[in-house]
Amino acid sequence: MILEKINKPNDIKKLDPIEYNQLAYEIRQFLIENISKTGGHLASNLGVVELTMALHIVFNLPQDKLIWDVGHQSYTHKILTGRKDLFGGLRKFGGMSGFPKRNESDYDAFDTGHSSTSISAGLGYACARDVRKQHYDVISVIGDGALTGGMAYEALNNASRVKGSFIIVLNDNTMSISKNVGGVSEMLSNIRSSDSYYDLKDSVANTLYKLPNGDKLVESIKKKKSNLKQIIFPGQMFESMGISYLGPVNGHDIDKLIKIFRIAKRIDKPVLVHVVTQKGHGYRPAERNPSKFHGIAPFDIKTGELLKKSDKPTYSDVFSDEICELAKNDDKIAAITAAMPDGTGLAKFARWFPERFYDVGIAEEHAVTFSAGLAAGGLKPVFAVYSSFLQRAFDQILHDVCIQQLHVVFAIDRAGLVGSDGETHQGIFDLSFLNCIPNMTIFAPKDGEELKLGLRFGLQDYNGPFAIRYPRGEVTDAFDDFETMPVVYGKAEMIHKGSEIALVAVGSMVETACEVRKILKEKGLDVTVVNERFIKPIDAGMIHKLSFDHKLIVTMEENVGLGGFGDTVCQYADDSQLDVKVLNIALPDDYVEHGNVSILKKEEGIDAAGVADRVLSFYTNI
């Protein structure tokens, strides 16, 4: 086993080149075997094995700085930097992160988790290097999916200012999470199929050599930087921006990769190396369905099927079915995604209503302003997006949607703790950053049925910016026997009527509140549970009413406390001089690491037992 020789950083440099292909095979088998047990990002990592190996062979890490865009494809990098034995704890609480982390290794030059950032970060590194008169290479790896993000072009626009080496590796696999869309994808497709350019160039050169003084004519063309290339070659977009272009090169041919990186290393200016890879390479199920294996739970290696299957629908499933049902009877409803039709549940909408479905690529800022334009034009756009990705478009929400009070519905998936992806993906800030924007309405359903009612209300009964947030995972059945009341703007729902203590909860925390009620009831306490529903505006009348017959109001939310629902209730209680104590139960003003959601809730004190303890402690001191 060649992989047994890889135990610490730079061990790969000690290998004989004849061992490279075998090592690539063994790394793939290692990844498949381990991720089948822990879950994780498989297809993206299988696609960059040779690419990562070549980077580690050619460059001198950690002196040279290797920056991964998104970072979900850094597993081979972690293997080659001495973290092979940590894969048993991949993405588990207290274990190794699935993304690059500077506090995890000196070989991780920059923390990543979101898209389109690596060129900007690498440019910053290169400029800092030049100012400090240091000498090292900077390599930014970016996928063709991430290249659809506007931030990548902002960085490319500034890259030409670098006077020394700056290498951009374009990992082109035609995929982001789902298949890429748009002009960038088409341009790269043209480059990938540009063998005809090279054939034509060779043919012209051979013909010229046969003419009198043909050799001088060929040399003249070369000195003019190959005018033929300027005219024909699609990669000239990068050349025109002052960035040298190399490629395309087969991303699974390690010898060619090593050669092209050594060439790039000698170029004393920004250079883009175009590497063509196959997502899921080396594992047939992932090659056939790279979207499924982008991020996957534990699975059976032989079949590729998940080990744990459930017939229960997820919140994304419920959203998917409901928006399709509503769109059947309303031809103004349109759906927008930022490269995630499968993850957000819009794949079904795309099949049923292709003329009203828009995948804008990894470009959340554009998606929001595009949605604003659709609304201004008379449609009812629904932008389905993960909570952690929506924060990338804060200015567009404020400036382009809310100031104009446009009817855009934000379907915010993965709100709250999401687990294994860690700090960059926890959806724990949306209540706070949306709560501060005038004209925004925020709704949080307690279960799947209320998600349907809330979406229907936002599209049919309301005319303005409307955000509906719901968690990751399966829909709760805790309220199946409860008769859900109709949605009325700004009104909460009484779940259990009691006295003394009122638990006023948001979204997923309503179920937790019911569990807390049971614990406190065993302690002899009579407890009210309220489903707040609307975070903005809060049901001020309900808060006022609760203050008359309760000593303590407890707010509960799966969001950071600062600027969230609890802060709003405290402000209202203070302004109205209510004779009641308020205790906020929320996540701390901090980032939450990766791990199982139930473990994270316990660690952060927002599980039922933790909340009950905090309520009892506070109540006994009133």
Could you say which structural class the secondary elements and strand pairing correspond to?
alpha/beta
User: Kindly state the mean pLDDT as a whole number?
Assistant: 92
Q: What is the 3D form? A: elongated
Q: If helices are DSSP runs of H or I spanning 4 or more residues, what is the number of helices?
A: 25
- DSSP E strands, number: 17
Based on CA atoms alone, the radius of gyration comes out at: 27 Å
Distance between the termini: 66 Å
Strand order of the largest sheet: 7-6-8-9-11-10-15
Helical proportion, percent range: 40-55%
Low-confidence stretches: 225-232
SSE layout:
Layout: H1 20-38, H2 43-46, H3 49-58, E1 65-68, H4 75-83, H5 118-131, E2 138-143, H6 150-159, E3 166-172, H7 183-192, H8 195-209, H9 214-223, H10 227-232, H11 236-240, E4 244-250, H12 254-266, E5 270-276, H13 284-288, H14 315-328, E6 333-337, H15 347-352, E7 357-359, H16 364-376, E8 380-386, H17 387-390, H18 394-402, E9 409-413, H19 430-435, E10 441-443, H20 448-461, E11 466-469, E12 493-496, E13 500-505, H21 509-522, E14 527-531, E15 534-536, H22 540-549, E16 550-560, H23 565-575, E17 581-587, H24 597-604, H25 608-620
Parallel strand pairs: 1-2, 2-3, 3-5, 4-5, 6-7, 6-8, 8-9, 9-11, 10-11, 13-14, 13-16, 16-17
Antiparallel strand pairs: 10-15, 12-14
Function: Catalyzes the acyloin condensation reaction between C atoms 2 and 3 of pyruvate and glyceraldehyde 3-phosphate to yield 1-deoxy-D-xylulose-5-phosphate (DXP).
Organism: Lachnospira intestinalis
Enzyme class: transferase
